[in-house]
Write a structure and sequence with these properties.
The structure is a single chain. The chain is mainly α and 407 residues long. The chain contains 14 helices and four strands. It is elongated, with a radius of gyration of 24 Å. The two termini are 36 Å apart.
Length: 407
Amino acid sequence: MSLRMLWKCGFAVLFCCLLSGLIAAEPAPVPGQKPLTEMPSVITVPPAAQPSDHFDPETATNAYLAEIPAEARARSDAYFEGGYWLILWDFLYGVVVALLLLNLRWSAKMRDVAERVTRFKPVHTMVYWAEYLVLTTILLFPLEVYEGYFREHKYGLATQTFGPWLNDEFKGLLVNLVLGAIITALLFGVVRRLPRTWHIWGAVATMLFYVFVVLIAPVYLVPIFNKVTKLNDPKVTQPILSLARANGIAAKDVYQVDASRQSTRMSANVSGFGHTMRITMNDNLLRRGSPEEIQAIMGHEMGHYVLNHVYKLMMFFLILVVVFFSLLRWALDWSLARWGEKWKIRGITDLAVVPVVILLASIFVLVLTPVLNTYIRVQEYEADMYGLNASQTGRPRRTFTWANTAR
């Protein structure tokens, strides 16, 4: 994960006024298009995938894959394999940006500007963060526009023209501006007040902030980018809510998000906690998925919820954050002792140290990429097994156990 991946947002500050007419445009409805809640016909099951006494999962999977045109499979492989290389290029690009900010002393100059605004240190931090975010957004924009716009259109995964895409990127910039200012001011406050144990309390503050964002995201952040509406079609909602109740999920409503205005991807999720918990599907899934596919996907997403993957992921994240902050303390001391004078950084309480922290975080995440991917794949496998069990039709539902995953 590079600077671009850590602070992904668009370069829209200079263009928004010029493109205001384009930005307001929404994709026009396609004539003759199905209503978003109209359910498609039942999916055709290949003979080799039909239930039988000799059913073989591998043979059934290969039968489904054989129905996919070779060109489409090659295109899919190219997209994902190219994405693996982009992880490396993102990292290298981010390293170059961080070193530019440090060696050209731009970070120190931004700190000086922030300190001239007021004597109030939290305001220093917020002003510096705004400067840093806008500058890195500009520097990272070429890679962002390639990955987020041109490449997605090349593979048929994007639906927005450049104006609406730029508008969403600008919204992301504003969200990062607010949330980033809060966590940056909080962490620098911890460092200034607790110079000996800042790495411990910094990890705690980061984790609490992460939980806060997870809590508010479904209700307050998602609607910034998409319209979320409650589904009222019983043909769609009743099977999903029945599946939810059967798996101990106290959901009363199903929501739809208009993801088709940005992408052709199909997705769903069970997100939030307590009163913010909700079941959400995007309109691509509703329009293009068969009832069986919707049931299977929702079973998978409910598996994440029932198997407490969110809480487990938080614990995993907490461990990584504690390890990172412990390494960060040593790495910052070593880096500043060697290059601090050259970069005009006064110490770890100096705002100009931010690019060093982001650079070290990028290295940490890149090294841990295999570990992170393995952990995520294990959770996805568990959710797959749960979803297959929960969404099966025509047979009595079994209670999920680890014995079932071996079948």
